[in-house]
Amino acid sequence: MGIESQIKASVVKAVQELYGETIAAESVQLQITRKDMKGDFTVVVFPLLRMSKKNPVQTGQELGEYIKKDLSSVAEFEVIKGFLNLSLSHSHWLTLLNNVATDEQYGFKPVTDASPLVMIEYSSPNTNKPLHLGHIRNNLLGFSLSRVVQANGNKVVKTNIVNDRGIHICKSMLAWQKWGEGQTPESTGKKGDHLVGDFYVKFDQEYKKEIAALIPGHKATYASLAQVDDVEATLKQLAEKSKSKEGLNDAEADQMEDCKKVIDFAKNNAPLIIEAREMLRKWEARDPEVFKLWETMNQWVYNGFDVTYKTMGVDFDKIYYESDTFSVGRDMVLGGLEKGAFYRRDDQSVWADLSTNGLDEKLLLRSDGTSVYMTQDIGTAKLRFDDYPINKMVYVVGNEQNYHFQVLSIVLDRLGFEWGKDLVHFSYGMVELPEGKMKSREGTVVDADDLMEEMVNTSREMSKELGKLDGYSEEEAEQVYRIIALGALKYFILKVDPRKNMTFNPKESIDFNGNTGPFIQYTYARVQSLIRKAADKGIEVPASVNAQVEMNEKEVQLMRMLANFPNVIAEAGSVYSPAIIANFIYDLAKEFNQFYHECPIVFEEDQAKRAMRLLLCQNVGKVIKQGMWTLGIDVPNRM
RNA sequence: GGUUCCGUAGCUCAGCUGGAUAGAGCAAUAGCCUUCUAAGCUAUGGGUCGUGGGUUCGAAUCCCGCCGGAAUCACCA
């Protein structure tokens, strides 16, 4: 039994014996003592006054005396206001340190054959353009989450559903056919995903021109727009105004409607979009030429993605492609239709009526029988369920899709998937620039490859300036630059509560000092350096230490933090938040650096003390490494 | 308009199952390398926790109203 449960049990006994009342152990309010107070654990006595019928200080005093007698680990106590602060004996902490030292996987729960299987879907890119900062957050969160879940004793399957079909990729394909002049990644020296992305942009530019060209002719149909020159600008103005307090008058509202109609018409009748749709139809009909082009360009993109994933350090156990799953989804929906879970409208489209769940109706199959986003997710779910004995499914997808997953959960449940009802949508916030959302149109999208390359460059410059890696070979040094660069980026993203939107300022590069990945990595390297220094002097880190060694406050504080690490891992697992671990390791590293500055370690003359400090250092290093592992961040031995 | 989420130092973020004097980093200022890595450490300044009520012995934390911001409500994905 851990010390926390022991204290709670002791409080329960005390209340029983002193006041004759029975309380539940879970109701005991036990917390870690504030840093500026003396003590390790604090019992909040306010809730117990009802039992004791005495004032807070007196109650705390009585409880303290009881607990001190009851538990040998409790050395002393102090009552301040309504708080009973308990101090544990040094031998308690030293015993704990010895236990930490013998546990290679300290803080992690073992994964066994009997462990539940959790499937985690993340990344899930479209194949029409390269990955950007938003994808980076998704990938880092997904990968880290898979490790956090694993550290909590679950089997994990990391999966990726690649959105490889649809109108978006047809746009890139069409633009390549028209303006590509046979360019390939090889002929241009460009990464495949970037090349395909360039044609997606090209399509968009040409498409915009066509829309603009169509508007004037169609505008004449609407009397309300006779005085309007620029329909798009007018719509924008009206839309802004409708959101403002002023609102729109009737004439303006009509005008806005007509603007929308004109623009919709232009969007739907531009020759390029018609051609792209035609291409999609050909693809669905397996037209050989279109299919070949589709395969070729997707392959370019995959080759590009592979490089990005590798640099980022993420991977997958199983990849699904929507081109394989969408028709399965269609069959599932039709099956559900037969069972009466869904209904068909007169125009042949298929819908789910979710009004009993407090939601709207949701389209599952278009009137022409083709599938929509939802249909594909249903099909993917079916294949996954066939492939793996899934106990829990986690989708790492942005919070813009909250509604989608609410619906998906209900629909899967109706289709009989056991885990449908409690699938987890790990809903994370957007990455925003100081000016707001990233917009490809305005060229403000932060490209993943570019960002990582810049980080490595900064890391290289900084390391060279500091001259810390002298004596390393070029390759060894380059490896460390990458570890630090990626550590900075990953920590920057992961330390933020995943549910919240976060701001990234591309003008201010990511820091390497302060509350950052490199700070933590540096602390780890510092520990390794200490151990090397000790070895140079013929001093080994002991396997365990004598529980009678004297300790100072800094040392005790570090041991408290080590003791808390398993709770942090468990907490992060239960609320799906790598950020909790990130913030914990930062605090630990900060605490360690203070200790390092105050206390000699290798140079400590008292042998027993030196041994204890070395063991403490080594295990702080171990916990940092374990924690960083759950974030997917490597730690260097030197930096 | 309905639903959901967010608002903490100049900036980026912790703290939120109610608990003691609200914390870090960055930025600013002043110190610390002839002993273990200065990507470090120490010190100073910086706050009506959006706002107004309520519940409570106790509210940044829970409830309600308001203000401000975001997302979503497609035969798009």
Can you characterise this structure?
By secondary structure, the chain is α/β, with parallel strands linked by helices. Helices cover 56% and strands 10% of the residues. The protein has a five-stranded parallel β-sheet with strand order 7-6-5-11-12, sandwiched between helices. The protein has a four-stranded antiparallel β-sheet with strand order 1-2-4-3. Strand 9 and strand 10 form a beta hairpin. It is globular and about 90 Å long. The mean pLDDT is 92. The structure holds one RNA strand of 77 nucleotides.
Topology:
Layout: H1 3-19, E1 30-32, E2 41-44, H2 49-52, H3 56-70, E3 74-80, E4 83-88, H4 90-102, E5 117-121, H5 133-151, E6 155-162, H6 167-179, H7 185-188, H8 192-219, H9 231-243, H10 250-269, H11 271-284, H12 288-312, E7 318-321, H13 322-338, E8 343-344, E9 350-353, E10 361-365, H14 373-387, E11 392-398, H15 402-414, E12 424-428, E13 431-432, H16 448-466, H17 474-494, E14 502-503, H18 517-536, H19 553-575, H20 578-598, H21 607-631
Parallel strand pairs: 5-6, 5-11, 6-7, 11-12, 13-14
Antiparallel strand pairs: 1-2, 2-4, 3-4, 8-9, 9-10
Helix pairs in contact: 1-3, 4-19, 4-21, 5-19, 6-8, 6-11, 8-10, 8-12, 9-10, 13-14, 14-15, 16-17, 18-20, 18-21, 19-20, 19-21, 20-21
The protein binds one RNA strand of 77 nucleotides through helix 15, helix 16, strand 14, helix 18 and helix 20.
